[in-house]
Records
---
Amino acid sequence: MSAIAAAEGRKSRPAYRLTARGIIAGEWTKFWSLRSSWITTAVSILLLIAIGVIAAAAYTPGAIGRGGRVEGGRDAVTLALAGTTLAALAAGVLGVLLAAGEYSTGMIRSTLTAVPTRLPVLWAKSLTAGGVTFVLVTIGALVSFLLGAPLLHNGVVKAGLGDQGVLRALVGAGLYLGLVAVFGVGLGALLRSSAGGIALIAVLLLILPGLVTLLPDSWSDTIGPYLPGTAGGAVMELHPSGGDLGPWAGLAVFAGYVAVVLAGAAWRLAKTDV
Amino acid sequence: MIEVRQVTKRYGSKTAVDGLSFVVKPGEVTGFLGPNGAGKSTTMRLIVGLDAPTSGTALVNGRRYAEFRSPLHEVGVLLEARSVHPGRTAVSHLMSLARTNSIPRSRVDEVIRLAGLDAVAGKRVGGFSLGMGQRLGIAAALLGDPAVVMLDEPVNGLDPEGVAWVRTLLARLASEGRTVLLSSHLMSEISLIANHLVIIGRGRLLADTSVDALTAQTSGEGVRVCTGDVGRLRSVLTGPDVTVTSTGAEDLLVSGLNARRIGKLAAEHGIALYELTPQSVSLEQAFMNLTRDEVEYTSAFQEIAR
């Protein structure tokens, strides 16, 4: 039968197979083919460098800060990384848009038809968003540190790249923001809503620490170090302050939050209709 | 080959698909028909695993879609709902899907040419017309050179040239031995392309038949005959089951004899016929009759007209 012959002829074509590598390559293509990816990554890096350099140039130790306290003890690394709070927000938004955008546009239907095993999409998306953010933020942190160093005022605790903890703090910024991007992917996939995901990122990273300080001291001192932003940020501190978690312990706590959100996102992706 | 076995899908209290079973065979175009809301799109989503059935199974070539190692090579699907990020260009969209299944760039260029998208390949999809969007969806469906092609309302928004293109394309895909399932709520469109029909209403199977069988089944409404000599013709057309009714001065409606037999009898008796037309209910009418009680959204006009 000609139909069968034709069907066999068709099978002689090279096999198009679903591979882990291919799924990552697909997410990579998706990532760089959206304007929002370019904008959020660029904003993230520019904020990091610009705020870091400005902070280095402007900070004068001994000046009277808010609440009449005499500020002091800021070191070169803290100043170089002054922009990480806002950069983290941009990285989180990037992650949310990558994941939730699939749902708001309907792209998820194309994606899951191509990858019906589903979960690898979430892992590949996390890897892409986290990996790109890690690399670019690490570079941005190094640039900020190196550009800011010559601008520092007298009295600031100076540091060189080779000094203990400096490289750890700068690379830690990359690790922390990379994880924040993955956190965003997880929240976006869990909520399937860009607005909801962005709002939640902002609340968790920016607003929650402020709210906790309103609690009685004994409470806020206990809870504070374990908040997502505070725990994750510990890895960027050259000299961890008294109450905070150690750099790696803090990063591990934040990775735990990310893992919980990703697990929830994975559960929803595997179990529900799209 | 697509096998849908006793599939039921409920969304909350609403049953979209209700104990549906049918088989779509390779080598022919199968039309998937039903009024709006009949469950066509849901069934297609169930076949590619975007939705999970409440009960029953939907298999492609004997396996669940999620089990395939080469999913895009097995099934290509165009869904009715928008499935493209408007911020990407057509090429980027196709490339991002192609890479997951190790499909080379050359194949992406091939389907872009095939779908006539060369001129807009580098443009953002958000600015596409409905017809261009459909062409992109069809290009995506063909990306993996699939054995099974499922298109949900593919001619929506296409211009006449595009509609003709889809028809030719589907006929070719079927002739190559592929399984082709094509949904529509328009019998007139489907009957031009499809050989086989699966008709559903309110999620239930109404008919699983060939276009020819449905045509045959819906004809048998008699033969219209025009002649100048009505009286003589009447006397010739006799038999146990034959009824002849007069519908005009020169018109008769004959049932119980086919056109061939009537023509022969008239010739034997030297009666001139001006017209000899088998009366058949149109496929459109047959479809309406089948689905009349299953229409989800009846317009007020129809309600009044009935």
Note: Residues 160-175 of chain B form the longest helix (16 residues).
---
Amino acid sequence: MSDSVLILDTVTKTYGRKVAVDAISFAVSGGSIFGLLGPNGAGKTSTIRMITGITMPDRGTISLFGESQRQDHQNKIGYMPEERGLYRKLTVRNQLEYLGALKGMDSNALKKSIDYWLDRFQIRSWEKKKTSDLSKGMQQKVQFILTLLHDPALLVLDEPLSGLDPVNAELINEVILELRDQGKTIILSTHRMEQVEQLCDEIALMNEGKIVLAGKVRELKTRSGRMLISLRFSGDATFLERYGESRVKILEHTPNEMLLELGTSEKPGELLQRVAEYLDIQKWEIVEPPIKELFLEAIAQNTKPAAALEA
Amino acid sequence: MNKTFIVLKHEFLLKVRSRAFIIMTFIGPLLMGAVIILPAYFSAMNSGATRQIALVDSTGQLANSMLNAAKDTATDFLSKEASTKITLTNALPGPGTIDSLSKLVESKALNGYMVVPANAISDSVSTAQIKLHNPSDFAAVSFLKDAYTNAVRDAKLRGRGIDPSMVSNVESGVHVETVKLQAGTEHNDNGEGGMIMAFVTVFILYFTLVLYGTIIMNSVIEEKSSRVVELTASSVRPFQLLVGKVLGVASAALIQVGVWAILLILLTTVGLSAASALLGPDVLPSISPFMFLYFILFFVLGFLIYATLYAAIGSTAESASDVQQISFPIVMLLVIPFILLQGVIQNPSSTKSVVLSLIPFFSPILMLGRIFTETPPWWQIALAVVLMIGTFFGCLWVAARIYRVGILMYGKKFKLSEIAKWVRYS
């Protein structure tokens, strides 16, 4: 792919005897939002640290912006680590000035950018305060500004919403979409499936250091071939449990809504007739599988049994 | 702008703008001066008070001479014991004398008493006793000893038919002078002064190395424990971060020590007359510009070596309490030469001293100590400098490897053996 901003080619990283990242390859197209997903310990952070140039791959290559990875690529990457951190004793402005300068910005551009983002996040009046005096929400805004300050072409956001209140979370989602519209490329590592549904164009799913599922979200959903039905009703739906999991599997169940998965030989029309006999149906919709389902399926298929892990 | 320089500038400004730095730079010398001068000053103050001392002279022949010597202390302000005023009273020896005198000393009506044995003049060996409320009142003790020795000597001379004044005539006018002879030049010097100078400067060096080593270590720990290091590491290479930090803090320390050194020079030149009035002449020698340059040279090299090691140690920890065990070897590297210093200064050109002062980790303290007491051959100084520069780069290489791994490792305390692995594998 010539328009790929980032390409990983059989990248491997080991720590001692543990293989954290095992020969993974993927590409991220320019101007897209790419979701890097996976359970804890799957190797996402190790992968991100290599992309951001904090560590080097043991084997394999990384190319950024069409070139082999170099030290000065760091200046074009905005990184928001999962473990947030600021200099506690520095003021907000000093903090932004120092870390902005480390991204290679000259002082004029830096000043303009700091002013813009402090205004945008409405924390201008706090610029002289020490970080340790700020509320957690404020600190997160400062952290996000640090990621954006140098106008990076590639953003790497590791769990950007963790610990955010809904107002700040919405603000950040908004800015992420805005940046994508400006042509920036965004790599998003998150556990929040609704954020993935809402934002991501492509995903790569990691498990135990390997990529177990990757591609465009649309295509993955179509390709899965799973038949899911979203149902809203009133009445007693317990009769559905008698079908058995191979025929009708209940994925989600709230008092008035259900997400059902039909076995391959089941016909949705027949089931609808049966259900209509028992329940008052308000909604009956054939839906694509949510990413969460694809995620769980892929993990289940690709996780070694515990015994194998011990050995 | 080079990123190492950005880190350097940031760390430097952060340090020199901090209140603690400004206070230490200007108050530090005052405190140090106080530590050196106050004890001497207080002892002089103390000796200004008049001591009441009783004399029990069982020979009956020494009291007069000693009482006269005591009278001189009250009038002769130019003598060595200028401010030691002693009032000596003659107490007649008798059965209850000692007991009643002891009671007077206990009730502090008397500072003490001296008992002269009856055989003081007749026997060749005898022992007098001085009993004082404060036995460490050196001024009183030294006066009593001198006065007693003179009185006994005079009495013994008279007993052999010799006039004591004749003896003092013969003795007077004989002087001995020590001259420091080096590199063809001669200058009067006072060995004691050089030794004090060596201790003072080496202490400043030791103190600053430990202080700033700890400062750098804590700054690394803070960056790591606040997790901000992940962000800096995504902007700048860990090696640049390490070098920038060490050099930045080193520049700040150099300014501080420079201010201290200048104040010390002022103290030893302008303040010399005032100081010598208290401490005696020539105790504080002047610092030659060469010594100042040597001090700066050894300070900078020592600083670079130790600061680099401290930074590496800091990167392995998440809190200051984690590092005590690991930093112990480094502290030892500084403490050992400090303990050896006295021996080396007393015998600066012995093989042992030469070898010890060439060990790069010890050189900042021991070679500097030698430079202040004698001038070692130039090749030894040069060799020490070369070895220290080599050691610095060696330490930097090791530290960079530890640092690179350490700053990203969380969740447990690391043993030295594990850290050694990082150096080998990374």
Note: Chain A has two domains: 4-221, 225-287.
---
Amino acid sequence: MLRLEPRAKPSRALSLLSPLIALAITVAVGVLLFALLGKDPLRALQMFFVEPVKNLPALSELSVKATPLLLIALGLALCFRANVWNIGAEGQFVLGAMAAGWVALQAGGDLAWLGRGIVVVILVAGVLGGMLWAAIVALLRDRFNANEILVSLMLVYVAILWLSYLVYGPWKDPKGYNFPQTVLFDAVTQIPRLAPKMRANVGSLIALACVAVVWIFMFRLYRGFALQVGGLAPLAARYAGFSSGGALWTALLVSGGLAGLAGALEVIGPLGQLTPHVPVGYGFAAIIVAFVGRLHPVGIVFAAILMSMFYIGGELAQSRMGLPKSLTGVFQGLLLFALLACDTLINYRVRLGAEKLAR
Amino acid sequence: MSEARLELSGIVKQYPTVRANDDVRLRVMPGQIHAVLGENGAGKSTLMKIIYGAVQPDAGTMRWNGEPVQVKSPAAARQLGISMVYQHFSLFETLTVAENVWLGLDRSMRLPQVAARIGEVAHSYGLDVDPGRPVHTLSVGEKQRVEIVRALLTDPQLLILDEPTSVLTPQAVEKLFVTLRRLADGGTSILYISHKLDEIRALCHHCTVLRGGRVTGEVDPSKETNASLSRLMIGAEPPALRQRASTQGAEVLTVKGLSLPRLDPYGVDLKDIAFSVHAGEIVGIAGVSGNGQQELMAVLSGEDPRAPVGSVTLEGRDIGRLPPKPRRRAGLHFVPEERLGRGAVPTLSLAQNTLLTRTSTLGPAGWIAPSRVRALAGRLIERFQVKAGGPDAAARSLSGGNLQKFIVGREIDAGPRLLIVAQPTWGVDVGAAALIRGELLALRDAGCALLVVSEELDELFEISDRLLVIARGRISPSVPIAQASIERIGEWMSGLFPGGVREAERAAA
């Protein structure tokens, strides 16, 4: 019989190893799954773990997927460390995309004088859009003690429906054969690309810069410290005089802003217009990314890359092997489950045999 | 010699880092009041949990009335006739006494029957409680009586009491002792866990002393002195504090006309509180816990910044509405009662924990320079003899005494004008307690004003220059320590002081 015995202190080695063990378990279950589906497991694994990093164009695609995940997960890590359970990053992402799209639509007209500078305005609009959506959550929690999990989640649906209303209605492209989409944005709004003929863009560099900024905020600034104390020990934060409201607002505004920035980068990067398909679940996947990355900015970089491999691998497995695309979701879920289970090992060790009884 | 009610031998319990019990033996006779004496961490609680079936020993035997038994769960223990009253009450505040007792019974009984039984038991042992009263209206002593009545309803042959007097006034302790003696006369064995030497000597027939998980003595406490018992308990005589000579300076903290309704529905309203603390003196506040100490501390520390204008002043400056940080800048530092989770963040390192109240190590814009933060923690560890794995050790890896030395040291090192300390040595080993009290006295001699809240009267008598008593949200006039007696302070703790709640009630009637 297996039994868990508490460790005297948390194992540092296992807190780093746990994501790797979880990945191994995910792969093992994946192999079993492919075999049961009658597909060659090796070839399927190749789709997930080799193809997405095979060459430069593949890496470029990987960066396009990883960038929004990274940005959103950074903000969520800050929230979760502050014990603020923002699970509505998807909605903040959509609001960022809408705000950015609205500015981008003015590019040829009122804002033509800005030239290429409009890209900056678009990104700022995206950040503000995401912040606005997160601010609603902060306000309701702060003023009325509303549960931020429910409020942020519900606002996701409000955001998605609002976007649908705009692209089916007032913002619809008049020459778009009645498809629910806006006009293609003016070329000046396009985010600069890193190399010709590849979709990798400056957004990835912005995201990496954000990693550094969030790291500094978390580990080198007193405000970041105060915010995390509020999450770890609310009474200690009160004793120290750290305002819980301040931590709530900071965490939500930062994570909303980062999710909004991701939305803006998405619409002026790979998408180039607004459609009902802007939300593809990055906001939810980023929750997994944040935890797999141990809520640490650097860990999140690796986790975002891994999660992007699942996205791309899922698509390749569908197109080349006829496997259902929902495998991506299965893999994401498996990874999170396995990780949560493996985290038990940080505080407990597994022992064989029943507990000894008195002789 | 008759057969032992309970006999343990060779009990061993190993936890990952510590051997909590090592070859422990214990023999309790019928009708005996048997003390188990030891410091915090000596293994008393583990031993009781083993007897009560909450923890299984790694080795050793247990005999119950001569029969070998294995107690696998508390329910099995109750079946045998073993009852336990824990130090922390497990009562539902919103239910009545009878309902609470009813919930804890293994046997099926109707509520009116339970109420009737409570009446009988209460009457025969002098434990007066009203079965119909909601628990939240009871005083702490009354709640403890409910716990004892609940334990007695199972007709136990052995009653285990874990630190039962830590929440009682001296008078309530006397009342409890009468009950316990009556129980023992009726043949019930009692295991009495405590670290209070006077009580053990006054009450118990026999005493088993534990130190570091091993039995270090089995004595008749009535034939021992406090000094000889404490030698067995800590292996040395308690270090004596050097004698006092305080030079009182200017008034530092002034509280007057402080009345404040409670925030928590089960809290206490503060009523017309007035007192002052001068530079170079230690003012002690005595009282049974739950009489407004927490509320008063929150008002003074700034965690509750609702004090009426002008009711709390520090060196002439109204600070009643300031949050904690500006109060600290004005020289008011505070050591809270809970170490882990309030005074320190358990999972963070000692270095990071300095940042809770010490911001002098920060650079511009709140930049944290790790080397300076660690240097401060290292200095505190050295100056206050904290046993820790260094500045990077997590707060929760320290023993209670060492963490308390660190937290008290962190506030003393800040050079406060006024230091407020709640329960400075609660749950702290004797060595650390002596060091902390010595440091507080040294700080007083250096001209700092100190306010100490404690439930341990001995401690307050040892270090205070003046004493106040808090009862039901009111505070007594102050008494110089030379004129204070345990009896008088004990009476005041139940509210019987000039201007106290009992007097106020009398005036209203």
Note: The two ends of chain A are 20 Å apart (CA to CA).
---
Amino acid sequence: MRFISPLIRTMNMKQIRRLDFQEALKRYREEDLLSLGAMADGMRQQLHPENVVTYVVDRNINYTNICCSGCRFCAFFRPPGHAEGYLITKESLHSKIEETLALGGTQILLQGGMHPGLALDYYRDLLGFIKGNFSIHIHGFSPPEIHYLARIEGISVRDTLEALMDAGLGSIPGGGAEILAERVRKKISPNKCTDGEWLAVMETAHELGLRSTATMMFGHVETVEERLEHLFKIRDLQDRTGGFTAFIPWTFQPENTSLSVPKATSAEYLRLLALSRLVLDNIPNIQASWVTQGPKIAQVALKFGANDLGSTMIEENVVAAAGVAFSLSREEMIRIIETAGFHARQRDTFYNPVCMRDK
Amino acid sequence: MRLNDPALLPIREKIISGARLHFEDGMSLYRSRDLLGVGGLANLVRERKFGRNTYFVRNQHLNYTNICINRCVFCAFSRERGQKGAFTVDSSSAEEQIRSRLHEPIREIHMVGGLNPSLPFSYYLDLIRMVKHIRPEVTVKAFTAVEIDYFSSLAGLSIEAVVEKLKHAGLAMMPGGGAEILSERIHRKLYPKKIGPARWLEVIRTIHGLGVPTNATMLYGHIESLEERVEHFLKLRTLQDDTGGFSAFVPLAFHPENTRLSHLKTTGGIDDLKTLAVARLLLDNIPHIKAYWVMISPSLAQVALSFGADDLDGTIVEEKITHMAGAPTPKGMSRDEICHLICSAGYHPVERDAFYQPVDQDHEHETDQTP
């Protein structure tokens, strides 16, 4: 399936001139923070002239932390057999979703580890349980989980995705992309799907009509060129499928991980955010990461190319495990958006406005 | 530099030609939706004055008492005598605090506290003498105009006599606190027991006249209007025209937690950046604009370097006033952490002393301790 959103048609009409790799690299290296920000802000205004910043109300539900990938940047996972490993119970899942709906949530982000003991039947049952009990969108399973599941089932990624879709999967989060460059993945996540495999899962998903986001975790062992390589791989795939709804960059959080590097700073974050708005001319939405940046920088990010503040995250475990715990209520989210001079609008997974009964 | 807001165009002309901005310019800057345009204008001035140099100091805070007769509405730090959490640092524990960091090459010791009726004027003189005795090389930067006015009635001395005695004991510089918002309306509502705007300015004028430089501050983000903020800037600028005694301006973002204004919210990042930028542009006669990371977070302070700020204050470690108001920021940063913040934003770190003179780093043999 080829997705063409109304926005992308607008984008073509406006004829935004495309940056090539060398031009993007030059801007990233040479422009100062404010100039890069102003270019990104100009592009955001062209793409989103309605002066709205969106957010979603959802909860991250991590069904398991047991993972045989052992990525060096991860503070969340526990290896199989570890005393702190867990698998979510149905009771817990049920109450978490009930709470989410009570708080006006429209989706759950369902992600876990690469658990060697869970087969397709487990996931079918998990999705079926949710869909049988609740009317809520399931944004779940990043490409590494899907790729791993296909491998242990001995079936294709396409068949895996179709089975999950049949069971109720609604869209895919863009996690596990880290940096889509072979050298980097060998260093930090050698047991996880390759960059080519990550992109192939996304391409297949988009072909099947399953939309997704794309992410990037930067500020560890990658070079500037590898950051750009990542952006251009995403852009190329988006040219073919149009299936990415949003791009979400965030900075690596080194605490409690086995990678010892200084944390990428807010100035570096804003530069990368602005560059991603400029390069990804075919992805409608750029999301600011308040979870890693905190509310002040997240607000400033709205002037550096971002048009979405992501999720209120009723629950978040992965970044919290790396020692970073910002929390944001819906009221606070709205206040950040409005005091930045935008209208706040709750959205669903596909960036459509949500009308709340109680608002 | 591209400006998206036509209201900024005449302001840019003035800035380029070196003409002074006025009240309406300040309001246009604050009201503009073009945050990056406002920042870019402030950055023009910042780069003209300091290039990409960014200053910081290795310093220590000593908050000697939180017992205070003023009990301002916005304060989470002050306590009544005998109230739970009230403290007064006696001379031996003050000495202990100073001695505990002798291994660090600290340049400035910042001391402020409440107006504690049980302490005699001699307590403050002794405090300064103690610090100078133990660390003769450090600059003692202490007491706001509010405290100086209080010492004057406490000791039955004129402002001049108080300042001379403090100078004689070793005081060399003063911070800029207690200005809050220099507006009678805000004075009546939030800090009625404390000296008002006119007296604050008068005391500072006297201090500057005696050759003691100070900073200037503004506590923003509570009940004040944008007009009141701009008027505040202009009052400081007028005084500075006469005395030249302000070395830095420090906007202080209000932290409502644990205060009687706890229903209010903390300031947004955009407001913080704009306030720094407007300060840089209106306060054309105050050399340094400080992004105080304790209040606005190290992350935002780093970004502020592109919005007019040229100083990140210091390493600190023992900050109490903002942290008692619920600040989620760290209590100190190491020299390496500050340098990393500055360098990774593309700026050049300059370690300074209290008077903004670069510290000769070739002669640094002491080790830096990460707090």
Note: Chain B touches chain A through 30 residues (CB under 8 Å).
